[in-house]
Amino acid sequence: MVLSEISQIKHTTTNNFFLLSGPCAIEGEEMALRIADHIVTVTDKLKIPYIFKGSFKKANRSRLDSFTGIGDEKALKILRKVSETFHVPTVTDIHTEPDAAIAAAYVDVLQIPAFLARQTDLLVAAAQTGKTINIKKGQFMSPESMKHAVNKITETGNEQAIITDRGTMFGYQDMVVDFRGIPTMRQYAPVVLDVTHSLQQPNQSSGVTGGRPALIGTMAKAGIAAGVDGLFIETHFDPANAKSDGANMLDLSLLEKLLTDLTELKKTVNTF
C-alpha cells in the first residue's frame, strides 16, 4: 500500500481517510510549527494518517508582485524541522526537474502541481528520487488521462503514486469537481480530493484568486461519500492575512470539528 511506505506516517490501520494539510506556503518557522502542532494534536486524537503540507516556493502566481516564498533552502529546512519535531511526514510541490532532487532531501512526498501534470521530464525526475509522488490532476485533464501521468511514475520504477483531484475549469473563473472521476482514477492510484483548491475562483481581474471557503465542509463530506482515500485541506490561523491562497483556506480553529464530522462519516461509508 502506498500510504504505509511513507516514512513516519501513523494510524495506517484505522481504515480512516488520510490527510494532507497545512498552509499554502511556508511563511516562517513559527507559523509552520504552530499550524503543525494543532493539526498533529487533532489527527492523533482522531487516528487520521497525516502528512504536513507546505509549499517551499510558489512558482505559479497571478501577478509579478505576488508572494513566492521566503527562500528555498530556508523553507525546506522548516519543513524538515516540522517533520523532526512532530514525527510526521511532509509534502511540498516542485516545479522544475532540479527541484525534485533538492526537495527530496528534505521531504517525504513530492507534489506535482496541476498545471504541470503532463510534464514528462518533471514526473520522471520526481519518480527517480524514490519518494512518493502526489500528482494533481490538471484542471484541463480528464480523469481517464491521469492513467498516463501515473504510468510515467510507475514505468520509471517507482510504484508510489497518488492522484489528487483539485477540480476542473468551468468557464474562466470557477472550478467544478466531477465525482464520477473518483472511481475512475482509483483504478490507477489512491485518490485524494483537494477540498480547498476545488473551491477556488481563479483569474479574478484583481490578479488575486478568490474562493468559497464556506463550502469546505460540503465538499469534504461529498468526497468522503464518493470514496476518496484522502483529503487535501489548506489551513491557516489567519487566512485573511495569509500570503498565498487565503481566500479559499480553512480557518485553523474550524479544523477539529470538520475532521471529527468527517471521521464519523467515514465510519458509515466503511459499512457499505
From TrEMBL:
Residues 8-269 form the DAHP synthetase I/KDSA domain. It comes from the Bacteria. GO terms for molecular function: 3-deoxy-8-phosphooctulonate synthase activity. InterPro entries: Aldolase_TIM, DAHP1/KDSA, KDO8P_synthase. Keywords: Cytoplasm, Transferase. One of its GO terms (cellular component) is cytoplasm. Pathway: Bacterial outer membrane biogenesis; lipopolysaccharide biosynthesis; Carbohydrate biosynthesis; 3-deoxy-D-manno-octulosonate biosynthesis; 3-deoxy-D-manno-octulosonate from D-ribulose 5-phosphate: step 2/3. It catalyses: D-arabinose 5-phosphate + phosphoenolpyruvate + H2O = 3-deoxy-alpha-D-manno-2-octulosonate-8-phosphate + phosphate. Its main location: cytoplasm. It is an enzyme of class 2 (transferase). One of its GO terms (biological process) is lipopolysaccharide biosynthetic process. It is found in: Cytoplasm. Coiled coil: none annotated. Its EC number is 2.5.1.55. Belongs to the KdsA family. This is 3-deoxy-8-phosphooctulonate synthase. It comes from Costertonia aggregata.
